Amino acid sequence: MMAPINPSGDGSVYKDHRKNKNLWIVEFKVAPQGIKKRHRKRFKLRKDAEAYRRAYIAARDEGISLQDGNMLASDLFDEWIEYGKKSSSWKDKDASDQQDDVRRFLKPRFGHKKIKEITVADVENWSLDLLHGKVEVSVKLGKKTITRKREYAPKTVKNKINQLSAALDLAVRRRWLNYNVAQDAEKPKVDNRLKFKPLTLEYLQEFRAATERHAFGTMWWLMSATGMRWGEVSALQWDNVYGFKEGEPLRIDCLVELGRKDGKWHIDTPKTQSGIRRYPITTKILDKLEEHKGVQFLIRELNEELLGWGDAETTNGKVKDLNLMFTTDDGNPIHNSVSLKAMRKCLRDAGMDATMKHKDLRSAVGTILISLGHTPQEASKFLGHSDESITKGHYIHEDGWNNRKLDMIDSLTE
Fold it and tell me: Other C-beta atoms within 10 Å of 351: how many?
């Protein structure tokens, strides 16, 4: 551990190397005005730690307690994250995402302020700065952290304001604030209307022709044939494809989803059986997957010594242990943004509309099935919608449903 900087009654800032955390610690050992005798707070960046130390000293010198409206917003955000982790409504992934957003968006703008000093105008100006690309946001790229400016979509900005509002709500409930200023701030208008024109079967066929030669082409083809979600298809494992052996039913089981947590890939498993999706498949899909498996085997043989294979860390080991169906050239999971960028490039090169997203393929499947004469209820059941109101009042008998589903897949893969 390094020697503290400013080791006096004005607090100290030092780096803690224990457990490889590389965090900057602010520590106060002198305790006038009833403040704790030993107050510590940890930050990832030294500049954030120094800013907190200065704000803490200023508050202390004024004889202010930091446990009321004079509490620093940085402390409130930490309190909100801890409260969320204990809440039954937050999952581990939610807590990780919220913590990351607090670090990138909320603390740089409001962390040094006392919560009672945050105004409606502050929130609205922050909203406009995010919309117009005037805010520097730190982004992790592998082991590096870079700072850049970019314009954010209205929906993203609205979500950030909602996060700030949720933290301030906690302060109101605990009587640290009289009211939540973020609730009065004007939020950007979000156009929820469909911006991407639903794909026709003819366009879907053109899409497949434009992307079939790409390394991810089979993955996109499978999404367009089954309506799989991105989280499902990116985590498919060869062990859960049935039909390669004689007598096996032709089926793909989606048992896990992949996500990112603390710089590592982590596996999300459904808590109930209803969360497991099972897709009956046709021999055409099986042949396509078998061809892809052969190509993947050749790529692995060529690249394993040079690039390694599946060496990225997961929360439970190495990626290679997952035996993923779709990977990058070094055997690691495909990130959503990498796939989307590649798909749009293929479409641009073919002179096609390059504004589509992964979810548009799923939406297209439902639209095309209805246009081919299937009922909305059948399309809803095919896609596995969890919203029961879509099929409320209608009953589809389970007998023969898989055969009916195979007919629907056939119509999508013609």
Answer: 9
